[in-house]
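Data deposition worksheet. Section B asks for the primary sequence of the deposited chain exactly as it was used as input, without tags or linkers unless they were present during the calculation. Section C holds the resulting structure in token form. Section D is free text for depositor observations; keep each observation to a single sentence. Incomplete worksheets are returned to the depositor.
Section A, Depositor: J.P.
Section B:
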Amino acid sequence: MSGGIQCAEHGMSTTTFVCKHVLESLADGVPRGFIYSTLDPAEEPNAYCADCDVMLQQGGGDWNDQLEVKAEIKIVCYGCFLKVAKLNGAQL
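Section C:
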């Protein structure tokens, strides 16, 4: 796992990766789906929205550089990750 990230709301926290649509949910409060990886303590948590899940499945089910560019993967702190997970009804 890499280092942490400084968040204005949550302070120093674990780095997580989300698609731009999950980040938009965090900003506007509109659920867009929240598909997340198994939260392995050795890896940074990551999540993507329902639309990116469709794109991923159409692309063969494996993330690659091209899909990551389309999803516009962003970094958020773990506190924000949990906040947007809750907004989308995800049980972590």
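Section D:
The longest helix spans residues 78-87.
DSSP finds four helices and five strands in the chain.
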